[in-house]
Here is the input.
Amino acid sequence: MRVTRRRMRVAAASMTAAMILVACGDEEPGAPATVAPTSTTLSQVQLDEQKAQGIVLTAADVPGFTMDAPDPDESGYLPEACLNGNALLLRIGRDDDPRGALSPDFSDSEDAVVGSAVTFAETDDEARAAFIPLSAASFPTCFAPDFSKELQKQPGFSNVTSTVTRLPALTVGDQSVGYRTTVKTRYTGVAVTIYFDFVFIRSGRALAVLDVTSSATPFSNATRIRLATAVTGRMTAS
Here is the structure.
């Protein structure tokens, strides 16, 4: 579950970025330059991936935040048991999502970490169906124990308890729903409280999730609304 593997920096040391060097081979002297074939026709899946990359959060959306190094993780956001097997929800946030994109994590000096993911369904109806398990009254009671179980597996965490509550409604997109998971735990023996916020937004075929981790105090509601509005605007324009 991505939230337990990307967000532990709120209680641990920050990660260091890796640099990737790409070497280019030399052509033989006098040989004509090789031009790679290009295609002007992209599949719908490729077009969706391009659109998703233009929707996720960027550094410009979070001034004053620092972009964190990527965390290679192919897991999604939510425990499968709470999703009724919905393929779209299982896919969003995965590094191998062919129709989606994942933003970097952005962190500030107050130990808040913000990220996002976007994917596209094949149809509006498929995207609408993703909100059935998300909006179910049983979702919080399903999510809380699974979240605690996953967090308990992380190094340094013990005595984990989680409660899930719905965030104030947002009037963005065609559908939206948000939850806050409040975690009380001991990290390396020290009692801490961590807040994990998730906001899911649908606009047509597009589905986005904003996720925020904060310690000590919950994340600003006004900032969450601003980020959700920015992402929704790009979803609508795509």
Q: What stands out?
A: The first strand starts at residue 66 and ends at 67. The domain at 2-12+43-237 is CATH 3.40.1000.70 (Protein Transport Mog1p; Chain A).
